Amino acid sequence: MEDKLSKKLLNTSLISILSKDDFSNETIPFDEYHLVMAQTDFITNKHEQKAVKTYFYRVPPFAASYVVVAGIIAFINKINSFSFKNIVEYLERCNYKKEFIDYIKTRDKLNVEVFSVAENSIVFPGEPILIIRSSLLDSRLIEDFVLHELNFPSLIATKWNRIKTVSKSMPLFEFGRRRAQNSLKASLYSYYSGVVSTSNCEASFRFGIKASGTMGHEFIQSSDNEREAFGSFIKGNPTTPILLVDTINTLESGVVHAIEAFRDNKELLIKNNSWHKIGIRIDSGDLAYLAVSSYKKMKESLGTDDINIILSNDLDEYNIESIINQIKFADEDSILQHISFGVGTRGATGWGSPALGGICKLSELNDRYIMKISNNSIKTTIPGECRSATLTNSYGEYITTLIYLKDENIEDIKYCVDPLDDTNFMELSDKGINCSKEKQHLVYSSMNEKEIFIDEAVQLSLTDIRKNQEAILSTLDWTYKRILNPHRAKVSLSSKLFELRSSMIKSSNFYKPKD
């Protein structure tokens, strides 16, 4: 792909790209029970009741302290392009009731308002990510779109955020296409967290993400010998001279032959302004030891500091952090600036947590607060249409996430309470406490089908989306971001919301009329 076109795509609204060619071509993107409930709503004449649903998660994946939200833009694109006409044939084939099918035939678009946090932002357990206002029937169906378009993408974005956290400024290359549950989503949402490039040509073609690749072991195996393979590869790819050196023996064969090939083709590499780009990829063995030893050997033999070392082989945040620490332990810190990482399977599959348990629960129905009550306290939901804000101290450091009812004025909230421990509360009148703006705002409305509203917040380009993580991450202490045993985020409820929730739990009633 031409660089100019890639740059144009990276700065093009993501939703406009998705609207032309989505991730999938599902015609009936629903679980059966949602259609069954929707039909029952219609038959019992409840289908037009006003409903509010909230999407959130209970427990972060990977034993982390937060989740990076991804997929909001794809979700908006899905609900905006959906038409009820697409499901009529399925309903008829599955013998749904004629009166329900006749009603569906009168419908075209979903009627919904969506309030959300920013794409690629940080959220904490229980915090409202999406708030859905619609009829009860429409809300049944919208839930499927929410869970499908946000759970896996947010899992992947969170995984790559963790990988980027430990690699810091060291470049990351995404190599996961072959094993990802959804390779296009895996590649796109890895880019949110700062990967340099992807091996996924489709992702590069659609979104403008830089494509990159080195060579596979079979390239060497399909040549007469390793040195010949390296020489041929350099001649064919003089601007990307990265050689895979672990097919036989990394130090005794691969690195030796790479040095010889670079020497043999030095004039060609200089001519193509790529002598400073020479390097190797190591895909097996003791990666920390081999990286240090290979760099030293190549630097001495070739007389240049510009040696690039790409490490791969089932890497994730844990072994990348270990490799970095091992190199530091060896007092070879200066070599780290020459190392980058190719991350495949473990990044693209969300290795370590097979799924994000994001859920979409009914919060209000016809001017009644709704909640799920459970013997398992973590499964007891928060009633009402809520919003959230971030509280920081006078140094700009994160204190807690405040969740409150949408009709509350933040300035009037006197104190907040731990939802699981009423003895743990905090006065908000302290002068040193600063409150952010409301994190959720209206991003989409199709209540008036003739004037559909799509907010500029979901019309961002990939270039702009990558910036959204930075604001909240900068307020978090390193203890929240570390990979092992991070501090847990302190999520709090306003006193009014806490009292509402507590009263509903005590009365064992899942609904309560609004005052």
Provide structural commentary.
- Helix 8 links the parallel strand 6 and strand 7.
- With 515 residues, the protein is of the alpha/beta class.
- Helix 4 packs antiparallel against helix 7, helix 7 packs across helix 8 and helix 14 packs across helix 15.
- A six-stranded antiparallel sheet has the order 12-1-5-3-19-20, covered by helices on one side. A six-stranded parallel sheet has the order 7-6-11-10-9-8. It has a six-stranded mixed sheet with strand order 17-16-21-15-14-18.
- Helices cover 38% and strands 19% of the residues.
- The N and C termini lie far apart (60 Å).
Give the strand order, joined by hyphens, for the main sheet: 12-1-5-3-19-20
According to DSSP, the number of beta strands is: 22
Unreliable stretches (pLDDT < 50, length at least 5) are none
- Shape assignment: globular
What is the helix content? Answer: 25-40%
Mean pLDDT: 94
Which structural category fits the helices and strands?
alpha/beta
| Rg for CA atoms | 27 Å
Q: Note the gap between the termini.
A: 60 Å
Largest sheet: 6 strands, antiparallel
How many helices in DSSP terms? 20
Beta-strand share of residues: 15-25%
Short account of what is shown:
The protein is an alpha/beta fold and 515 residues long. 38% of the residues lie in helices and 19% in strands. Helix 3 runs antiparallel to helix 7, helix 11 (226-236) packs across helix 12 (250-264) and helix 14 packs across helix 15.
